[in-house]
């Protein structure tokens, strides 16, 4: 036996692919050991048996048509069907088959069952994700209309009522409406990102970005009377950005800080400009965020430990990261020594 024959023999025995020869009548002439390794059938149980004896019933017609092409002299490449294993399960095989000597056909089959199942799972998950995100988009849109009506009703009552005891009730209702509007905005933004539209930006030069950021701080402080929010500005130039989106990002970061931080100490917002960027940082006291928590903070629907899920959907920080990314910027988080700090660095 020459070297080529020895190599062929060795390949036949060690190949993980299922190699075989068929007779012209479709019966197995030879099979290599990979058939038994994959399907469990021994050589004696396969030799002389027609390939149709092992086929999934739904694949008989297409497989016989492919074999007819092979026997007419046409190679068959990438054909797929399902073969029954000895344990009665089915394996999906991908075939390469070529005519060889007259009346004999060489074939190579590869088990692609796991690849097929993974692809099917990915497709199913994709369909489920698309349905979920479309639902979020519709839900957000349909909630906005009644919420606007509720907000208008609160405004009318506030203007017309002279009862002092109603003032705190109406203020609480207003805060609830504002909170609900923020949740809807986050849902809508999440749906836009996941449906491919991304976070839209309306870029413009802002003469006094500090004043807009301070306004957000004041709104958060009003909504959370127990929180003290300090604003520090060190800006010496105009910036170019989508100001409402930056305000939304700061509002989400501050909402996170006053919800999870230690309110016995103030929350600090720092705003400063650099030659090519501007920086917004939010600092709050409180427990340290774990390394695993920091790794998942900007993932959608992440809400940390069970006691941290008191409010919201877990979308706020994800939306912040998407807004910063849309600006071409970066957001970092550090949590140590009893303090957590989120820093947005944005070109503009």
TrEMBL record:
Q: What class of enzyme is it?
A: transferase
Q: Which InterPro entries does the UniProt record give?
A: BphY/WalK/GraS-like, HATPase_C_sf, HATPase_dom, His_kinase_dom, HisK_dim/P_dom, HisK_dim/P_sf, PAS, PAS-like_dom_sf
Q: What is its EC number?
A: 2.7.13.3
Give the record's keywords alphabetically.
Answer: ATP-binding, Kinase, Membrane, Nucleotide-binding, Phosphoprotein, Transferase, Transmembrane, Transmembrane helix, Two-component regulatory system
Where in this chain does the record put each PAS domain? 24-74
One of its Pfam families is HisKA
Q: Which domain of life is it from?
A: Bacteria
Per the record, the major location class is membrane
SUPFAM superfamilies of this UniProt entry? Answer: ATPase domain of HSP90 chaperone/DNA topoisomerase II/histidine kinase, Homodimeric domain of signal transducing histidine kinase, PYP-like sensor domain (PAS domain)
Which Gene3D superfamilies would you find in this protein's record? 1.10.287.130, Histidine kinase-like ATPase, C-terminal domain (3.30.565.10), PAS domain (3.30.450.20)
Residues in Histidine kinase domain copies: 138-348
Q: Which residues form a coiled coil?
A: none
Catalysed conversion reaction: ATP + protein L-histidine = ADP + protein N-phospho-L-histidine
**GO terms for biological process?**
osmosensory signaling via phosphorelay pathway
Does the UniProt entry include the keyword Transferase?
yes
- Topology versus the membrane: Multi-pass membrane protein
Which PROSITE patterns does the entry link to? HIS_KIN, PAS
State if Electron transport is listed as a keyword.
no
Q: Fetch the SMART domains from UniProt.
A: HATPase_c (SM00387), HisKA (SM00388), PAS (SM00091)
Q: Where in the cell is it found?
A: Membrane
MF GO annotations: ATP binding; phosphorelay response regulator activity; phosphorelay sensor kinase activity; protein kinase activator activity
One cellular component term (GO) for this entry is: membrane
Q: What is this protein called?
A: histidine kinase
Supply the source organism's classification.
Bacteria, Pseudomonadati, Pseudomonadota, Alphaproteobacteria, Sphingomonadales
């Amino acid at each position: 036996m020459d070297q080529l024959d020895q190599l062929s023999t060795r390949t036949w025995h060690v190949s993980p692919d299922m190699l075989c020869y068929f007779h012209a009548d479709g019966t197995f002439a030879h099979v290599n050991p990979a058939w038994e390794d994959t399907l469990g059938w021994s050589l004696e149980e396969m030799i002389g048996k027609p390939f149709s004896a092992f086929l999934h019933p739904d694949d008989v017609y297409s497989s016989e048509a492919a074999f007819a092409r092979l026997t007419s002299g046409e190679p068959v490449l990438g054909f797929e069907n399902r073969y029954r294993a000895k344990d009665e399960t089915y394996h999906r095989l991908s075939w390469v088959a070529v005519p060889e000597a007259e009346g004999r056909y060489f074939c190579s089959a590869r088990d692609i069952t796991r690849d097929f199942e993974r692809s099917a799972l990915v497709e199913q998950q994709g369909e489920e994700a698309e349905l979920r995100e479309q639902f979020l988009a519709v839900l957000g849109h349909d909630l906005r209309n009644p919420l606007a009506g509720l907000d208008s009703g609160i405004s009318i009552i506030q203007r017309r009522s002279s009862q002092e005891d109603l003032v705190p009730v109406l203020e609480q209702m207003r805060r609830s409406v504002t909170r609900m509007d923020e949740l809807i905005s986050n849902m809508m933004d999440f749906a836009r990102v996941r449906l491919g539209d991304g976070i839209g930006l309306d870029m413009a030069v802002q003469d006094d970005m500090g004043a807009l950021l301070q306004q957000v701080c004041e709104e958060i402080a009003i909504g959370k009377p127990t929180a003290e929010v300090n604003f520090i500005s060190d800006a010496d130039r105009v910036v170019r950005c989508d100001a409402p989106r930056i305000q939304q990002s700061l509002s989400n970061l501050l909402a996170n800080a006053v919800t999870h931080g230690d309110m016995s100490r103030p929350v600090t917002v720092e705003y400063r400009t650099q030659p090519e960027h501007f920086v917004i940082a939010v600092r709050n006291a409180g427990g340290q965020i774990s390394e695993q928590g920091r790794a998942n903070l900007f993932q959608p629907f992440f809400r940390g430990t069970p006691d941290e899920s008191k409010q919201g959907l877990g979308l706020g920080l994800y939306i912040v990261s998407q807004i910063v990314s849309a600006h071409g910027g970066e957001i970092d988080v550090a949590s140590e020594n009893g303090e957590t700090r989120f820093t947005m660095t944005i070109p503009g």
